[in-house]
């Protein structure tokens, strides 16, 4: 049996975040950190700078393609959103060298982007100021499975097979067979990376949002976002998928079950655009 911390420690050398992200975190956390200094750090990485300008000028952000200054882009997005976008754009490169057995990486990242878009849309419909942050939280929500399939692929696959055959939840089967579930592993990786504390709290409690404490609302959003991804993968109707979610979860986010279809439509509408921005190698998937 394995602990989440043990699995994360096995891939620690393979999952260091890019130095440009680390430097941005240092600037943002510094008492005298500034938008200008963040702009300079990003500007030293031409590829990252180009991608950030592409984000700001995309239809997703509504600036009409008029932003040609990196400093202006950083100013418009703000420090937290710049941090989150750089983190989101870094994930693909961090795991680029991994080819876990039993895992379709194209499908994994496509589903992860779908989950991120869904979490962002749920937060937006709920009038939460965390909407943009929820994009990257959604991207990270299933990262524990990538760690598990890289470190203990046979056990992870056995857990999935057992869950499908028995009707038990995947997380339950993972805890019985691996020793921990994907949410625990994802939270451990967020902690290992020293991301803002809310990331580990939300990712770790996505299966039981009440455990997230002050971040229970965000964890509830991730739970619903994951059901949107599952519904798309399994060909479920929005009505059936929505009804499988506890009324308490809907009440927690202040939305009705019949909003599920609207959320799902937003994911389908924006998926290609986000794939191009975050994971260009998956374009057209």
Short description:
The protein is an all-alpha fold and 285 residues long.
List keywords for this structure.
285 residues, mainly alpha, 68% helix, globular, Hypothetical protein af1432, 17 helices
Characterise the protein shown here.
The mean pLDDT is 90. Helices cover 68% and strands 0% of the residues. With 285 residues, the protein is mainly α. The chain contains 17 helices and no strands. The chain is globular and about 55 Å long. It has one domain: Hypothetical protein af1432 (Orthogonal Bundle), CATH 1.10.3210. Helix 1 crosses helix 12, helix 7 packs antiparallel against helix 8 and helix 12 packs antiparallel against helix 13. InterPro entries: HDOD, RNase_Y/CdgJ. This is HDOD domain-containing protein.
CATH topology: Hypothetical protein af1432
CATH class: Mainly Alpha
The number of helical segments is: 17
Taking pLDDT < 50 over at least 5 consecutive residues as the criterion, the unreliable ranges are: none
Structural class label: mainly alpha
H and E string: HHHHHHHHHHHHHHHHH
Strand fraction equals: under 5%
Terminal CA distance: 36 Å
Average pLDDT confidence is 90
Largest sheet: none
Q: Helical content, roughly?
A: 55-70%
CATH architecture: Orthogonal Bundle
Please indicate the count of domains. Answer: 1
Rg measurement, Å: 19 Å
The CATH homologous superfamily name equals Hypothetical protein af1432
How many beta-strand runs? 0
| Principal-axes shape call | globular
Domain HDOD: 14-209
Protein name: HDOD domain-containing protein
InterPro entries: HDOD, RNase_Y/CdgJ
Pfam families: HDOD
